[in-house]
Amino acid sequence: MNYDNIKLEKGLYCNGALTQALEKEDPSAQYEGTALEGLDAYERQLKRFDIRVSGAGSDTVEKFFKTGDSAVLFPEYVARAVRQGMEQADILPGIVASTTVIDSADYRTITSDPDEDKKELRPVAEGAFIPETRVSVKSNLVSLNKRGRMLVASYEAVRRQRLDLFTVTLRQIGAYIARSQLKDAVDVLVNGDGNNNAAAVTNAATAGTLAYTDLTAFWNSFDPYELNTLLVSPDIMQKVLEMTEFRDAAAGLNFHATGKMITPMGASLIKAGCVSNGTLIGLDRSCALEMVKCGDITTEYDKLIDRQLERAAITCTAGFAKIFDGAAKVLSV
Q: In this structure, what are the phi and psi dihedrals at residue 269, rounded to the nearest 5 degrees?
């Protein structure tokens, strides 16, 4: 157990993951059955320098900069706080089927979307040709967007601020990033990823009115996929909640008691402000969307350590691609 003897330096960030670098030097497995079990290598370093980042007794920002070693921990604290904000505001886990992490600026995904005839697995006679399902690389690259915020603050302005309060600000930055990424995902679901695969659009029977029959017809159009997730604009969410089919006594009791509502056809109902008014996006979350990430949260650690804040970018680079075209459709009201 040598967590209190590790030399901390900026070079530990060279691959963008301080915690992973620390785990190589100080594996968590060796702390099983001790008082430090359950802490990762970074959290043990916080304990080493007696830095408390949360709770009523949290330390001030300047505690990180008491020594050169402890200052190295500050960018990771920033990244973790931003990541917490992203996770709290993140809807993407409910709509993304697969997440691919890459280490380059270019990525070309694969596709396999056979027509209805090829989806049916018919009996194959002895010696006959077995039908093929072709998997190919898409023509266009996945578009990756770099999203982030510039953290602008002088060390003197924040040095005496409690870390618990400073974390709230950083979490809000994470929430901004998560909402921007959701907007990118919605754009790909509706307009496609540049490979001529925009979502099929169905119009409601009566313009401006969402009827229960519109939802049942929309649900029925997904075969052989499963309509298990609905992304809706705020105005459509209100229309759904006002439907008689979702206002019976049992539904009302459940909604008022838990905030959970009876959802159309059992699908998860998600309100998203980035969805255009009058729009309902249905998808099979198990096979509709791929998320492509170029690394994780990135902080300009040199500036955060050497210049003690001032101006430092906090960014995350990600993009989205469709997997099966028919697994996402749009209902326009």
A: -105, 115
